[in-house]
């Protein structure tokens, strides 16, 4: 098989992998049926991310710190 460019595999392993994949597909079906989040929930999420971003050091400050420590 290898001489013909084929890769020998264990059939049982392939079937196990397919069964796992199909089981995961069923789990994701539950998410597709949900309505997701409301605009209000998403706005709260965005506000939280903006607050977190404000607490981060600036890129300019970070690059200056790195240059100092490399010297």
TrEMBL record:
GO terms for cellular component: endosome; membrane. GO terms for biological process: signal transduction. GO terms for molecular function: clathrin binding. This is Target of Myb protein 1. It comes from Dissostichus eleginoides.
């Amino acid at each position: 098989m290898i001489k013909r460019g084929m890769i020998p595999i264990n059939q049982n392993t392939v079937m196990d992998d397919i069964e796992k994949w199909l089981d995961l597909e069923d789990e994701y079906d539950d998410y597709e049926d949900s309505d997701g989040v409301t605009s209000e929930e998403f706005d709260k999420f965005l506000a939280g991310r903006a607050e977190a971003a404000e607490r981060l050091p600036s890129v300019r400050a970070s690059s200056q710190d790195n240059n100092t420590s490399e010297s």
